[in-house]
Amino acid sequence: MILGRVCGNLVSSCKWETLKGHKLLMVEPVDEELKPIGPPFIAVDTVGAGEDEIVLVVESREATHAFDEPNTPTDMGIIGIIDEIKCGAAVIKIM
């Protein structure tokens, strides 16, 4: 799983049938202190995430489990919006 910040979106006028109704978002991976740790990637949004939200992303075959059709062609899927991160004694509240 990858922790990331939504940093943009893509518009697709034509996409695979089982992806219709789902947004394609640009996600920048971040560490537990919300600092960027790599280049952005594209993920299919299955939870209604928006710009600047911190999200949980799964990759590979697990990304398809959020869809009714098991052969939905996706490699990265957003499966959660993060509200709070606890790391040791530190707590980061996401607003």
UniProtKB/TrEMBL annotation:
Keyword DNA-binding part of the UniProt annotation: no
Keyword Cytoplasm: no
Main location: other
Localization per record: Bacterial microcompartment
Domain of life per record: Bacteria
Alphabetized CDD domains for the sequence: EutN_CcmL (cd01614)
Gene Ontology terms: cellular component: bacterial microcompartment
InterPro entries per the UniProt record, alphabetical: EutN_CcmL (IPR004992), EutN_CcmL_sf (IPR036677)
Keywords, comma-separated and alphabetical: Bacterial microcompartment
Protein name as annotated: Ethanolamine utilization protein EutN
Organism: Candidatus Wallbacteria bacterium GWC2_49_35
